[in-house]
Amino acid sequence: MSGIDRGKRTVTLTNADGDRNTMNVPSDVKAYETLKVGDRVDVDYRESIGVSLAPTGSKPSITERTSGTHMSGGKPGTATRETTISAEVVTVDVPNNKVTFVGPKGNHKTVTVADPTIQKKLPNLKPGQVVQFTYTEAIAASIRPAVSK
After folding, report:
1. pTM of the entire predicted model
2. Please, which residues have CB within 8 angstroms of residue 24's CB and are 6 or more apart in sequence?
């Protein structure tokens, strides 16, 4: 662990390649209070996204669910966050594989579709349709104390 911001409840981790990543730590992770810079943290991280057409008449919306277990006695803690966002299609640029959406807060976002399977479906996507995105993050972490020198 290369940094801790107690006020923001974040930690900065540096992996073996030197890549740094700052992560929020949920308030139910009790072991956070015992962390020190130099502690080793073993982290398994997974993410996935699912995309589907929402039922006719759906409106843009956002929901979030979280769950987790505490780290204790050297045992790993886990956390899962699932965010579902429904956004309305504004434009579809089939030749460039781009879609512009407007979300529940009125923000516009243009995304480039990289997946060839989904690219083939773009000609069938029309402005006004609502698309639902479900983004899931799962993390398992355990802490090892810093090695004394």
Report:
1. 0.60
2. 8, 9, 10
Indicate the DSSP class of residue 106.
Answer: S
For residue 39, what is the DSSP state? -
Q: How far apart are CA 21 and CA 78, in angstroms?
A: 18
Would you say 60 and 124 are in contact if contact means Cβ atoms under 8 Å apart?
A: no
The kind and range of the H/E element at 64 are strand 61-69
Instruction: Give the three-class secondary structure for 6.
Output: coil
pLDDT tens digit sequence for 18-51: 888 888 777 777 778 888 888 888 778 788 888 8
Bridge partners of 82, per DSSP, are 65, 136
Residues 93-143: pLDDT tens digits?
A: 999 999 999 999 999 999 999 889 889 999 999 999 999 989 888 877 777
24 CA to centre of own chain: 11
Residue 148: both structure tokens together: 């004394």
Cα of 22 vs its chain's centroid, Å: 13
CA-CA distance, 97 to 113, in Å (whole number)? 5
Say if CB 68 and CB 78 are below 8 A apart: yes
